[in-house]
Amino acid sequence: MLIIRSISPHSTSARLWLLATLLVGHTALAAENQPAARRTTAWTQSRLVGSPTPPPPFRVTFAFEGLKFERPVALTSAPGEDHLFLLQQDGKLLAFENKRSVQQTALVVDLKKREPKLGSAYGIAFHPDYQRNHYVYLCYVYQGTLEEGSRLVRFSTDGAHPPKIDPASAQTILTWVSGGHNGGCVKFGPDGYLYLSTGDASGPAPPDVHRAGQDVSNLLSSILRIDVDNQDPGLAYAIPKDNPLVSVAGARGEIWSYGYRNPWKMSFDRVDGHLWVGDVGWELWEMIYRVQKGGNYGWSITEGPQPVHPEDTPGPTPILPPTLQHPHSEAASITGGFVYRGTRLSGLTGAYVYGDFQTGILWGARLSGEEVSWHQEVARSPLQLVAFGEDTAGELYLVDYRGQIFQLEENPQPDRSAEFPRRLSQTGLFASTTDLAPAAGVIPYQINASAWADHTDSQRWLAIPGQGQITADGAGKWKFPDGSVLVKTIHQRRSNAVPRKLETQILHREDNSWRPYTYVWNDAGTDAELAPAGGLDLDLAVDPASPSPDRWRVHSRSACLLCHNPWVEARTTVFGVQSASPLAVDATQWSRLVQVAGMPISQLQHLRDQGLLALANKSDRAPAMPLVDPRDEAQTLDRRARSYLHVNCAHCHQFNAGGAANIALSHHVPLASTGTLGTRPTQGTFGITGARIISPGDPLGSVLYYRISKLGGGRMPRLGSVHVDVAGASMIHDWIANLTPQETVAPHPITPRLAASLASNSDNDRTAAITALTTTTRGALALLRWVADHPDPRLRAQVLAVTRTHPATEVRDLFERFLPPDQRVKRLGTVVDRGAILRLPANAEQGRTVFFNNPAAACKNCHRIGKQGETLGPDLSTIGKKYGAAQLLDQILEPSRLMDPKYVPYLMETAEGQILTGLLEKKTDEEVWIKDARNQIHKVPADEIELLVRQRKSLMPELLLRDLTAQQVADLVAFLATLK
Prior knowledge:
This protein is an alpha+beta fold and about 1000 residues long. It is built from 20 helices and 48 strands. Helix 10 packs across helix 11 (about 765-775) and helix 19 packs across helix 20.
């Protein structure tokens, strides 16, 4: 068996680095034009074929195979017409017969001939009374960003079959700002009014540059509803009197709903009349809404459930949650569809069918009342689903942006999911799973920089079947043949025993897509079982002498794609298919020395010698700036820090990959271009005065350092670990401290007097110093670093005594890591089973006792029922009229998700640096009143206020019920539900 051993930078072997590097470079130059080596040992034992998931119930097939279009964007029918009508992005409207055998189209109009400034056409709708008036409405935009660049125009046709449009008949109905997201979908509702979608007129980033989403004084980010059969003075249409914002001062009366980013395709259910729309998300979520009159769908305060600009002022109606939502691990550019009312696909009758442009996946959903009763993937396709269409019979069509029209049919593919290996020993990857001895042709490899993973270690192997090789495209991106497998086994460190195997993760490439799977090891370490798609939690034996975790999360397959997201490889062939992306598979990670048969050798050259790498020309040389091990103190602090941020943060913090902060942390991005230096955070300041994402020279003022130093809400990274990387955080602290300041750095909170108190033998002096420092987040961060640098058990115990029950979450979360794991807060997100609580038999009278008398809940301290309780929060006397039991539980567990505008907290920073948080009681040109969590009013003159911003976190703590039993929570919910 071939053994590859990593070389320590301080070992004797490492002294050969310079010589080996020179020799490898010389070899690469000499071999540059030679054919790649043939595989020395082929991997022929793979049993990884297909998927453990059954095939979807439907597949796509051609609807009109004889037709080909150029960048189609909309497909529709016309009342009384047998033809279908397809609009291309270039402005051509084409008609064709609704027959599978159709071979030709007829040109209805070419908008480009009338509008030479045309940028893109987007939407089309025929008037409901088309057979009488021959009206058709088209939405298109001019090139560039123009005040009147987006246009809704009415044309007349000649009424023929198929019809022709007279370009001279054009009448402009409505114009609005163009640029970026334009929406542009046009539909007539069952009420006879015209509905039109508009986007935020912004590009992908930064988000909502016009802050249009919540601004109802313009027509952006909305669905409009207008009467095109009548006219109001000065308009080419009338505004229906029952539109929701007609009587709202300063609002555009045309708005039916708002708060969209880019509403891409909407439709009405031809049976019940409900309006559905897909809204293309920003960094993390894709949304589907069943639209309500006056509905506010959050953008850009939120992107579905994620806050984006939480400090912005919301529109005049409450923010509503999505009806359906998909993380970017499942979808990346949603396309709204139709409620299926045809007859061909009985299994989809009454289901809303929609899809995703990037992944090609289609889903179906049904609602019972307001609740989703059924929601599942119905088909996978290679299509770029730009639009759906419906004919007069209600049959559904899928429009591929690459030029053809498809439909769904039942999937005849047999279910072979049972053949997928359920045990690691069945995969063909290992000759012995007990010893982790790889099969012939499976090669171990090392990487330069590993992500933090809670005191665990990993081994890695590469398996490429047959004579397959890694090649590179013109951009230098590595390409793997189908059947390739990347393998990583994670071990728990144990102080007095052999490390325990926890899980083996694999990325399996099939059909040009990487698919993630995980195998979970048995206690004996002899084999591993395929984990369920939803993941699972492992309870580990507590080892007091080891920092290893006592609980381990095996992530779901969809969670794997949050980090291994397609945007990492956005310029490769895998993009456009739902695919994971390898994160540590390139020359920057693999360019290193390893020992093979006792000799140091370049790993890249070794893999080339094995016939696994066939990188052309200069691609096989070591990169100019490979990543380094962040813990290798022989490297520069800057390279260590940039490598650390790259492997722990950059896969999400890049364009479209899910990180809400508009920053880019890949190591190749110049630091000045990362968007971090001197940038005010948009996702919360955590009470840090003058906070910046990175405040050069000032780690205590840097939210990045704060987030990686804490536990609880807002901790980074979001996935992959639950423990603080103490060494990594310390290194980032030192790196930030060594950056050249861009502005005056605030004095260090630990003054000489406080330092003396912390170092003294007096418990009283120490406690006083700890109490003083923890009055601010900045002081608490300084104390955290002091405790790390002065490992005194007595000092740590005193810090815990003060901070364990500290009223400020942002302070308490910093020191929770000092508690034993079994004494830490059991986070509700991973512990609470909502369904289980709601299924418990509940006693409303006991719930009354919980509300008024249980100190752990403390409900009456903020809420009033009847004449009992306080008035800091909403009056709950009739809350049961507004919410059912499930909604009440959601409100209790996630109080920040939907907040009444009257109870949205504000953060105030005074000119003297004082931080106040509470409800905005009064705001005038002279003064501002803030009511804090103790119900005290603070009156501050306006000229003394440095900053006043909305907060995304409710004053009601999310962990409020952590000390209650599930039964007590069920009783409390039952009591609240009776309040009507």
